[in-house]
Amino acid sequence: MMETQKWVNIIVITHVLMIIHIVSAAKSLSEADRIVNLPGQPPVSFHQYAGYIVVDENQQRALFYYFAEAETDPTSKPLVLWLNGGPGCSSIGAGAFCEHGPFKPSGDILVSNAYSWNKRANMLYLESPAGVGFSYSANKSFYASVNDEMTARDNLAFLQKWFTKFPEYKGRDLFITGESYGGHYVPQLAELIIQSKIKFNLKGIAIGNPLLEFNNDLNSRAEFLWSHGLISDATFEIFTSVCNFSQYRRESFSGSLTPVCSGVMNQVSKEISKFIDVYDVTLDVCLPSVLAQSETLKNMPTREGVDVCVEDETVKYLNRKDVQDTLHAQLVGLNRWTICSDVLKYEMQDLEIPTVHVLGRLVRSGIRVLVYSGDQDSVVPLTGTRRLINGLAKELGLNTTSPYKAWFEGKQVAGWTQVYGDILSFATIRGAAHEAPFSQPERSLVLFERFLAGKPLPEAEDLPFVKQMHP
Ligand SMILES: *[C@@H]1O[C@H](CO)[C@@H](O)[C@H](O)[C@H]1NC(C)=O
Ligand SMILES: *[C@@H]1O[C@H](CO)[C@@H](O)[C@H](O)[C@H]1NC(C)=O
Ligand SMILES: *[C@@H]1O[C@H](CO)[C@@H](O)[C@H](O)[C@H]1NC(C)=O
């Protein structure tokens, strides 16, 4: 009797131990990626994680992520994946540290970002494809030619394996967001998720100043530059009739730049001047970057605290050994972390794949789509994007459900917006860059919050009569 009881006890205990072991194994999958404290960060109450997800075991190809859980109540908030463009630029360097992550680097420390997107969501930043940032392929041949299809496939594999590490997020409302060449990555990944029939709870996508249609987007640049006074009438004329921008880019990608196109572009660049940030034509430039003497000049914050040198600060920060150790990051086959990849050869032909129709198919599948434009960007100007979305709505037979009008943040106009069929929206962000949250963080956060909630953008409150200045 005693003996039997003893054996039963041992068996029960063994089972309990096994169960504890299994549970803690699942837990420890993500625990291993837990960040205790980023060097120089202020104290915070939310959890942060960073590390690698191997997307191809044979080729040892691994993608690096940074995950900032929501500041408060993470279990009730959605999961948002963010993808920067390039192709070849880092979502952690640009998205997290220059745009809408919880911290911005400043000297040796990190300062809190009052408009961080993790106030509204659990934010997952992914460096993709391999070759970008800390993401790598042990077989370097991978870098020789990467295209949209490979990127989307790896991004999907990443998400699947990431959910194994973070199973509590598997059924969570999922939004995929990004900007610029994210106009390819974001809808292509969303469509692949739908096609693969994997049960992610994908609710919507949002893309800022996205590349959606090569000719349309690139050629809207000329008018933007001209109307903002950056190029002369004569130069506008040759930039539209002699050689336009899509032609110039096509020639330069294929290594067959003609003297005619090269002449037009030289004139355009000369008039714009190198002291203009073409990603925000009204913003001052970071002089250390422009003059390549980073250490000698102090930062010059402009426009109510926009640190135009934040990118330089980020590069410095992410190249610190203590920072890399804390992030569980490695430099595989690289000497330095760079904001945009030096090793990746992206298939430039893919820039010409139109993705505006992918947006259409997503809308038809019931996925909410927001396309927004920082209105001071000359690289993918709002005018071209607005025209495309308007055309798409017509093509889909979506009626305007909210006519073109100003939206507000605080007591000021934050931009203009139009909604089609309550599922497709276009919005501008007034005074914002190509990387809208970088120069208009507060307006961008309001837009983000309303998008996640599926609510209309704020309208004018009961404002007192606004006295206009007379000339
Ligand atoms: C490395 O990658 C290239 C291209 O993807 C492939 O053809 C080659 O077989 C790979 N090499 C090894 C050793 O796996
Ligand atoms: C400008 O771009 C369009 C679209 O790519 C092209 O069809 C056209 O030939 C170009 N025109 C000139 C004058 O460069
Ligand atoms: C769109 O508007 C047209 C004209 O007002 C109307 O006939 C049509 O039913 C509307 N379509 C939808 C889907 O509401």
From TrEMBL:
Pfam families, sorted: Peptidase_S10
GO CC terms: extracellular region; vacuole
Signal peptide: 1-25
Keyword Protease: yes
GO term, biological process aspect, one: proteolysis
Location in the cell: Secreted
Gene Ontology terms, MF aspect: serine-type carboxypeptidase activity
UniProtKB keywords: Carboxypeptidase, Disulfide bond, Glycoprotein, Hydrolase, Protease, Secreted, Signal
Broad class of where this protein is predominantly found: secreted
EC numbers, comma separated: 3.4.16.-
Role according to the record: Probable carboxypeptidase.
Protein family per UniProt: Belongs to the peptidase S10 family.
PANTHER family noted in UniProt: CARBOXYPEPTIDASE, SERINE PROTEASE FAMILY S10 SERINE CARBOXYPEPTIDASE
Protein name: Carboxypeptidase
